[in-house]
Amino acid sequence: MSDLSSINEQMRSLLARTARGRSEFEDLVVVPVFAVVVALIFGMLVMLATGVDIATIGKSFVALAKGSLGSVNALSETLTAAIPLVLAGLGLGLGFRAGLFNIGAEGQVLLGGTAAVIFGFTFHSLPFAVLMPLSLLAGAIVGGLYAAIAGALKAATGAHEVITTIMLNLISFKLLDYLLRQPYIQKEGRADPISKSVPDAAQLPRLLDWLDPNLRLHAGLFVMLAAVVLVWWILFRSKIGFAFRASGENPHAARYAGMKSGLVIVAAMGTAGALAGLAGASQVLGVLGRASPGFSADIGFDAIAVALLGRSHPLGILFAGILFGGLEAGGRQMQVDAGVSIDLIAIIQALIIVFIAAPLLVRAIFPWGFARKSKGGSEV
Amino acid sequence: MDVELRGITKRFGSVVANDGVNLTIRGGEVLGLLGENGAGKSTMMNILSGLYSPDEGEILIDGKPVVFQGPGDGIEAGIGMVHQHFMLVPVFTVAENVVLGVEPTGRLGYLDLKRARAQVDEINQLYGLHVPADTLIEDLPVGIQQRVEILKVLFRQADVLILDEPTAVLTPQEVEEFFGIVRSLKEAGKAIVFITHKLHEILEVSDRVSVMRQGRIVGEGDPKTLTEADLAEMMVGRPVSFTVDKTVAEPGRPMLEVSDLVVLRDNDEIAVDHLNMVVKSGEVVGIAGVQGNGQSALVEAITGLARAASGKIVFDGKDITHFSVRQRHSEGMAHIPEDRHKSGMVSSFTIAENMVLNSYYEKPYSKGMAIDWPTVHKTAAKYCVDFDVRTPSVFLPAGNLSGGNQQKMVVARELERQTKLVIASQPTRGLDVGSIEYIHSRLIEARDEGDGVLIVSSELDEIMGLSDRILVMFDGRIVAEFDNTGGKADRNAIGLAMAGATEGAAA
Q: Tag placement on chain A: N or C end, fewer CB within 10 Å?
């Protein structure tokens, strides 16, 4: 080695971080932001087209802002709605990174939540410090196992996870109806399918009840934040996460590198399901207090949108989840103040996803938001 | 038809792909365009075919300036491009593919396939292409598929044909036939631009040669007065050695013993048929053969990607027939895969991540359940320096590297470990002379350190240059063996054995 110092110099420069590419920034930040803006504008157009007058439209957008951000109560509602969306969204995003399009979060939320309720009232004599965490854990485990069924089917037979998870969703709906009528689970003296209540010692404590007993924000917030960090660590720091991402980006290369595709699929589905189960558990232990048919209220489906909007990145999912939580909280206010149907919020959410899925469309609408591309350049 | 490019400049962001390029293309002449990967050849030809528009400069056809707005304009003006990757519909017939997009139609707009077939046959005859018009593309060998691509541009009345690395996918025999076609096109007055980085092909078929480096034309000349060494020096910018420098092999103990190995394809056809072979430590064994004779299946079985239906694989005295990919890797087997894009790397991952793609779970990269990224980054930087991977940073996506640097990255990852056996499949396919030279010397270095080295390549030159012993694979079996000490194996005999001639007995 003739010149050691020049080699050291070379290595130092190789280790110098390069600036993140402009295109990466555009993909992760600019496209989602514009997608939200365009979707809101389209939502306005939809209202116009359905004969809502301008004044009401103005009023409804004010209500949307007020209901999501305008008061302590609004913020509390936004965050409360965001918690299960972020948790389930993290699971879905992790699956997307591993190349798995898991549609089954809804079922995993339902069964995870139900498991948490059952665990909670079964061991109601345990103290809070034990019962609450274990109830959450029970939700995560059951959600994870339920998702792992789809993973195992794919690993063993190649059955596509989109199909199997949709079917598992349907099964979970009926299974929940059945379970809720079992004497052990059904609330005493009720004829309709509804579970016993979660004992106090299993509940996620309210965080702001010292301010106002009506504020619903609960300790699931910390579970959510911990999950964001954990998923980030799994994806970008751990060995299994490396295998997840490699399998998702290039399954041939992952196989060549000796990663076991079956193991990766089952592990990724299991982790995703555990997070969805945790979402269900935090919802029943923090907000609902019991399980009833359809208590998931489409969290598992909205979380798909959250994961897509967040670009399958834990931080992106956190922000996307809070945005969707805000839309939900604001949408309720909108219905009250302006009499506009909350369905409009669903339309806006759907439009956001359309624009996320069609970045070229967003580029075409906002050409000034993006670096000019040479025609036929290497990036699309 | 004559075409002239004047002062063409094309930038992609801060990268100047073409920098004031001047080039003249004349009818009835073959222009050889030579350059390393990333020298700007493809960009220039995409400008010429109308796919890109230049930032500066102009294109003149027969002296008149033209402006191309899109890919349709190039072919409209009579400039047709035959891409390296074919753009054919596998389940359509030749005639259907040729007329796709410009279908001859009857009065009511129905597809007149009969007329299409007649026109295809006419072109076939005119240039001696011999393409069966009614056969499905998927049933045709690669060499014939390429002629269909040529047919396509001729059908669209192109007078200038741009052939982008046309020989990369052909066997030696097919290359000869292909040159025949190029000559007959030339005689018919067509202008041909022949892009390649194979020097001897340029010398054999072109009338004029232009060499590109870093976006510029750095040399022009008459192939009759130039040697391969001249061209290579122009292309790389320094003298290049063609022969692989190596001493006589000193084979030691058997590193890899394959006995009676049978490997099946997905459809249960036999790919490897009761094959026997040995690779000893300290020797390079080359497997020659036309692609599709079971080489890929053999490599997959040795490296653990495919299951052995029967037979035995022994690695340094240990039966590894049922070992996983990872176990074989841990035992000291290195594998340079035949298709780096498909399986050798993850393009969106950083260079550092790719450097540990198959060893991230081992010491020193693994720290409990986590990966020790600082160590990974430092090691990756060291590998990049050691293996001359040219990149400004190890944090860039591997997909940003040029082909040669990507392959050097893969080779670095595989050879920087403690290895005992190196399996290299098409180690230099699609690379430029400089990278080939470098990778070859590294493989020989591995041999000299006592590794067994197995090279599988469809380039006979590569096999001849590197191997101490040459095995010829045909129809799933080793049909001949040649001693290549001092490069003295009989090239003709190898060629015959590759074609399946039976008398190629063990020498």
A: N
Q: How confident is the model at residue A374 (pLDDT cuts 50, 70, 90)?
A: very low
* Whether B232 and B255 share a structural domain: no
Confirm or reject contact between A181 and chain B (CB < 8 A).
no
Residues B398 and B279 in one domain: no
Report the Cα B506 to chain-centroid distance in Å: 30
> Looking at the domain assignment, is residue B356 inside a domain?
yes
Instruction: Indicate which CATH number applies to the domain containing B287.
Output: 3.40.50.300
Residues B505, B405, single domain; the answer is no
Minimum distance, in Å, between the CA of residue A251 and any CA atom of chain B: 8
Distance CA B428, CA B425 (A): 9
Contact B349 A245 (CB under 8 A): yes
Residue of B237, B231, B193, B188 whose CA lies nearest to B5 = B193
DSSP string, A139-186: HHHHHHHHHHHHHHHHHHH---HHHHHHHHHHHHHHHHHHHHTSTTTB
In a domain? residue B441: no
Q: Is residue B435 part of a domain?
A: no
Q: Is A20 touching B (CB cutoff 8 A)? A: no
B241 is a domain residue: no
* Per-residue pLDDT band at A373 (split at 50, 70, 90): very low
Of B236, B270, B296, which residue is a domain's last? Answer: B236
Residue span of the structural domain in which B267 resides: 250-331+421-427+452-507
Contacts of A246 in chain B (CB under 8 A): 346, 349, 357
Size of interface A-B (CB pairs under 8 A): 102
Question: Which of B300, B323, B355, B361 has the highest number of chain A CBs within 10 A, making it the mutation to test binding with A?
Answer: B361
A4: closest chain B residue by CA: B385
- pTM score of the predicted model: 0.81
Contact A257 B381 (CB under 8 A): no
Inform me whether the C-beta atom of residue A182 falls under 8 Å from chain B C-beta atoms. no
Domains of chain A, earliest start first: 53-339 (1.10.3470)
What does chain A come to in residues? Answer: 380
Residue of chain B minimizing CA distance to A246:
B346
Q: Do residues B106 and B255 share a domain?
A: no
CB contact under 8 A, B11 and A11: no
**Is the CB of residue B9 less than 8 Å from the CB of residue B16?**
yes
What is this model's ipTM? 0.85
